[in-house]
Amino acid sequence: MKYTNKHNLPDPVVRALTSYDGDQSVEGLRVTTLIDSPRVSQLRRRHSHEITEDVSSLTWRVLGTAIHDILERAASNAYISEERLSHTVNGTLISGAIDYQFMDEGEVDLKDYKCTSAYKLLVGSFSDWEKQLNVYAFLIRREKNLKVKSASAVVFLRDWRQAEADRRRDYPQSSIMEVPINLWSDDDQDAYVAERVRVHNTAELGAEFDDLPDCTDEERWGRNARYAVMKTGGKRALKGLVFNSQEEADTHIKNDDTRYVEVRAAVYSRCAGDYCRVSEFCDQWKEEQRT
C-alpha cells in the first residue's frame, strides 16, 4: 500500500494514521475476506504494491480500531474479549477475531463492535454483518463445541446528530445502539462457509490464468436501473412514479403527451467510488464504463 497526503496534513497526523496496518501475521483466510468478493481479494493481492490511498481516508478506520482497543482494555473475566479462532475447511484455514463472547447456561451470546454511519441503520442493510457473525458462530461451534444462542452488532455511529434524532422518529435515537443479527441454522452456516471457501479457492486458481469471477451486484453495492415518470419541463419524478421496470413506467405515460420516462442507469457505488481500492485494475469495471 502506498499512501498519499493530498491535503498536506501535518507529519504527526500522517504517522499516526498510517501506523496501524492490522495484524499481518494472521494465517489463513480472514473471515472479512471470506465473505467479500473473490475478485477483489485476488486483485488486491496482485496489485498490493500499486494500490494508493490518501491518509485522510484512514480516519474512520483508525477510529474503529481505537474503539475496539478501548473496549478490549475494559474487558472483565465475565466474558471473552478479542478471541481469535481458526478452523480448516476443505483444506483451507479460515480465521476470525471475535469481539465479545458471553457464556449463559452453556451457550454463547455473541457481539461484534461496528463503527459506521447513521445511514446504514436508516436503510437497514445488515447482510454483511449477518454473514460475518454467522461465520463467527460457525467457528465457535466447530472449535469450542459451543452453541451461539444470540448475536448482535454493537454500533457506534460516527455521524450521529442529536438534532436529527429529535426531529425524526425513524432516525437512530442514540449514538450507540445494539442491532440484533439473525442466526442461521447449523446446516446453513456449514453450507455457506464451504461455498465461500470454494469460490475463493477457485478464484485463486483462476488468477493464475487471468480468469477471475465477476463481482456480484451485491458485492459491488449495486442499485438496479430505475425508470422515472417525468412531467415535460419538470426536474423531478412525479411523486410515487419511480419504477423498477420500463413496462411499469410506460403504463403511466400512455395517452399523455406531457409525460415521459427517464431511465436512471444502474449504479455500482463500490466501483465508482473505488471503495474496493482496485477498481482501476478491474476489467469488469472497465468494461462497464465502456458500455
Describe what this molecule looks like in 3D.
The chain is globular. Helix 3 (38-46) runs parallel beside helix 8 (186-207) and helix 6 crosses helix 8. The protein contains eleven helices and 13 strands. The model has no long low-confidence stretch (mean pLDDT 92). The protein has two domains: 2-207, Lambda Exonuclease, Chain A (Alpha-Beta Complex); 222-290, no CATH class. The two termini are 31 Å apart. A hairpin with a 2-residue loop joins strand 5 and strand 6. The strands form four sheets. Strands 2, 4, 5, 6, 7 and 8 form a six-stranded mixed β-sheet that branches. It is an alpha/beta fold and 291 residues long.
Question: What can be said about this structure in brief?
Answer:
With 291 residues, this protein is an alpha/beta fold. The chain is 36% helix and 27% strand. The chain folds into 2 domains: 2-207, Lambda Exonuclease, Chain A, CATH 3.90.320.10; 222-290, no CATH class.
